[in-house]
Amino acid sequence: MARRRHLLVAALVLALVVNAVWACADATPSPPSVPSPRWILVSGSVPGLVDAGLPKSELDNLDSPSTLMLVRNVDAHSDLNDATPTLNFRSATDLATALSTGQVPDSMHWLLLDLEAWSLTPIPEQRDPIGALRRAEDVAHRYGKSVIFAPAISLMNVLAPGLSGDALYQAFIDRLVTPGAAIADGFEIQAQRTEATEYATSFVTAAVAAAHTANPGSAPVLVGVSTNPNGRQVTADDMVEVYNAAKIAGATGYWLNIPGSGAECPNCGEPRYRVAVEFLQKISSSPS
């Protein structure tokens, strides 16, 4: 009788151990603890900022894991040693291919999806950017990654050609910000084209509010500023105007663009690093 009880107890313990093992195997792994992005910078722009006179204190402010450093390959070097290397994809197809072929290291949590009406984004994805985002997120989540969606306002030339002014910006909010922010792990509003225009504050205020409403959780909402959006000459004060409006509206981070001529911006001319330095100094010295 005692031997039978021992066998029953042993069987019960074995069953509990097996169930625990299966429970652990089926559990969804917890996402890694990563800081919410506060800045996005292209890796190659950092030396230009330093050469243009960016004070060390400002450089130290950027040298943080909450700065996403956009790199072309995972081995790229940056002057910001503590920044987080991040790959920037111009199509959901490229993002999925990079993940499935092992081009994205395990340590890289954030991926940027920058869809625009340009040759770098496939036409089908320009016509259905939200569908492209869904596909990108499905693949990214299977690999434990998170996607920041950064659709350009130029996509409206494909989705609703002929719009301008208030109608254009409202359509962008309705067609891209609201549905995109609702499903993205993070959302970046490319507001730089409004710098030095009558929409500089009204658009970013409405877009940030729409993104937060669509995803009221902790998903980051970032806003882009540029030293020369599509080649237009703007001042540091023009950039600060957009930055301040975004900050008041509740933006959690910013993408500092310092473009130069190339496939991504044929009209941009030389990078305007001094304007970027002036911008960073102005926002640093302004009241919190």
UniProtKB/TrEMBL annotation:
<feature type="signal peptide">
    <location>
        <begin position="1"/>
        <end position="23"/>
    </location>
</feature>
<keyword id="KW-0732">Signal</keyword>
<protein>
    <submittedName>
        <fullName>Uncharacterized protein</fullName>
    </submittedName>
</protein>
